[in-house]
Amino acid sequence: MSKRKREIKKRKKQLExxxxxxxxxxxxxxxxxxxxxxxxxxxxxQGELIPSESPVDDSEIVSKPAPPPVxxxxxxxxxxxxxxxxxxxxxxxxxxxxxxxLLGLLILYVLLLGLGTVGELFEIEWVLNLPLFK
Length: 134
Known about the structure:
By secondary structure, the protein is mostly helical. Among the domains are: 1-42; 94-133. 59% of the residues lie in helices and 0% in strands. It is elongated and about 110 Å long. The model has no long low-confidence stretch (mean pLDDT 76).
């Protein structure tokens, strides 16, 4: 809430300054300018602008040290004519199609489970006579 109040005060001050500048520009005679300058507040002394001593003891403040840099793992060099064992497994058929193969197995399992459930609930003889469900 105090930020909002500060913003409002700041805007009011800017508005007053712009109005004062407009009045200064529209002054028709030197007398009006002199009268306007008399109305302005005096500039504050430099001693007034310096903030007072902080009541908090700054000597107890300790800065947090920077975290150590993150090291990247070193890459293995490829030797011509040889492949590392990890890439050989990934390049095989199962390594390339593992997700599709596992998804197919999951779908097959759910279909057989559903077929067995339907056979039990509705007592369908041909389903119950399958060798899988005996």
